[in-house]
Amino acid sequence: MQTPDACCPSRCGTGARVRCLRSCASARAPDRRHRWRGPTRNSSGWRSASSSGASSRRRKSCARISPAAADVTRAPLLLLLLALLVAPAGAQSHAGTPRAHYLLGRELERQQNLDAAAAEYRAALERAPNLAAAHDRLGFVLGLQGHTAEAIAEFEKAVALQPASFDAHYHLGATLWWTKQLDRARPELQRAVTLRPAHAEARYYLAVTERQQGNLTAAIDGFRIALRHDPKLVPAHAQLGVALQELGDLDGAIAEFRRALGLNPSLADTGNSLGLALMQKGDAAAAVRALRAVVNASPDLSEARLNLGAALIQGGELDAAVTELGELTRRDPANAEAFYDLGLALKQRDDFEAAATALETAMRLDPALPEAPFTLGVVLWQTGRAEEAVPLFKEAMARRSDYSEAHYMLATILKQQGSVEAALDEVRETIRINPLSGEAQTTLGQLLQAKRDAEGAKAAFMEAERLNKLKADAQASVFAVNAGLDQLKRQAVAAAIAKFREAIRLAPDNAQAHFQLALALRRIGRQDEASREFDTARRLAPYLRATTTR
Predict the structure, then answer these.
(1) Which whole-number Å values give the CA distances from 60 to 83, 133, 164, 173, 229, in the listed order?
(2) CB of 371 within 8 A of CB of 17?
(3) Residue 445: helix, strand or coil by DSSP?
(4) pLDDT single digits (tens) 358-373
(5) Neighbouring-strand partners of residue 10
(6) Segment 416-435, tens digit of pLDDT
(7) Are 359 and 379 in contact (CB under 8 A)?
């Protein structure tokens, strides 16, 4: 069974397209290359779960094997002899005892002889249709063979026959998750966790299901409980990072991705997720290091090279970005996003002709990619070809109806051409989509001035000034928080508190400012004031609730 994906496609503020690996954030549908493997150990170190592998917590009620006999059962012949010993008196062979068929099936399964194991489990069920353990193991083997529908049916029979079976509920829930039946998977996994609260893998799958259903707080709690029971459960660290990233806790996400990589440095998907989180945080240099490590280890991994190019663009390393993205287009000539990012890097390097060629290729390869016609339109506008840019901005809006930047650029060209009414329509649509755009309010004021609407223009200019001040104050607030953190490193707590208060004055909704102020106040014993700041921080950013209770 594959672990869930790290995240979805996003842009991380660079204008470049970035992509997450498809092996970590959402359940992958089974196909010929990625079959259901069950919750057993695989090449990435995934742990065996309950009786599905060689776990020390394996159920012993079926075989009733004493600890002294446990090692003997590793040999197929001796396992068969043991089965014969528990057969009814007078039995001449194992053919007549359901338990013998079951035990032989377990040994054949251990040897990876799945067809023979399935045959033995079926033989056991022919003789004892109510043997829940045989239904469970047959389901597990069928899942390994790719027959997930039949596997689910067997697990359901096992659950019906033995409602208190952890294995049956866990295997049923995990297989339903694998087949993307999340609503059905969740109660089965909840029951499994109830039956065995300390089972880390069951809690992991339940938490993944919660995350995929949008229950981020429950998912984060679930991953943390799983990790308390098994701190080395690598997928739980990776998925906790994903959930924290989705909730906006980039620092927490980065820490979890790094923990996962510390346990297993070969995880390309987690390295990719780390790079994306660092880009979102604005740490382009660290993102480049993380993504270059992934690319060096997996040169053919297109997603990581694409994101490396985006990180290089974010850090202003345009020549290096062009080199990486050019290499990606050579390796993957059908990758529209690679051509788009290459065009973006070339545009920022003022190589407009080459940029236009790359962007045209991106448009052709992916008719649904809205950024390609938009950026090509900007290139044409910058090079004095505004008339040719107009249909490109309209194409971008056709591909994405809420593309405020495309509406604004079209308004800009129409204003330059003297089409005041048409420009007004576009700038008002820009403001409807993005009410916080100070630039759009300024353009609205200029257009209303051209129409001699003095009152309307005055109101627009005042709103533009207010929005621009909010934006500047928000940026200054971030700088003040960073300055406060620097003061804390120097043990200058009073100076740090002053910086955090300044950050809050500039942007009262800056959750990190309240949070860091609370931590600083707690350091000097001002617990009541610290509690108030913690409450404010958690109200503004719910993910901080978990952060303050770790």
Answers:
(1) 14, 11, 14, 22, 22
(2) yes
(3) helix
(4) 999 999 999 999 999 9
(5) 18
(6) 999 999 999 999 999 999 99
(7) yes
Rounded CA-CA distance 325/342 in Å is: 6
Q: Could you give all domains of the chain from N- to C-terminal order, each with its CATH number?
A: 1-42+167-316 (1.25.40.10), 60-164 (1.25.40.10), 476-547 (1.25.40.10)
Closest Cα partner for 133 from 52, 198, 38, 193? 52
Task: Check residue 47 and give its pLDDT.
Answer: 32
Tokens standing for residue 274? 């780390």
CA distance 225 to 200: 8
Distances (CA, A) of 263 to 78, 266, 550: 38, 9, 21
Lookup: tokens for 478: 């971030």
Q: Of all helices (H) and strands (E), which one includes residue 512?
A: helix 511-523
DSSP 9: -
**Nearest-10 Cα torsion for 173, 176, 180, 182:** -40
Q: Are the CB atoms for 24 and 270 separated by under 8 Å?
A: yes
Cβ contact 243:216 at 8 Å: yes
Contact 328, 306 (CB under 8 A): yes
Find tokens 């459960």 and name the residue. 233
Coil, strand, or helix at residue 181? Answer: coil
| CA distance linking residue 535 with residue 31, whole number of Å | 48
CB burial string 18-29: b at 16+ within 10 A, e below: bbbbebbbbbbe
Per-residue pLDDT, 136 = 96
| Tens of pLDDT, residues 470-518 | 999 999 999 999 999 999 989 999 999 999 999 999 999 999 999 999 9
Give a three-class secondary structure readout of 315-374: CCCHHHHHHHHHHHHHHCCCCHHHHHHHHHHHHHCCCHHHHHHHHHHHHHHCCCCCHHHH
Q: How far is CA 490 from CA 325, 499, 504, in A?
A: 41, 14, 21
List CB contacts of 439: < 8 A, sequence separation 6 or more.
408, 464
Per-residue pLDDT band at 538 (split at 50, 70, 90): confident
Distances (CA, A) of 97 to 82, 89, 90, 103, 108: 12, 11, 11, 10, 17
**pLDDT recorded at residue 373:** 97
Contacts of 33 (CB under 8 A, 6+ apart): none
Asked if residue 314 has pLDDT above 70, the reply is yes
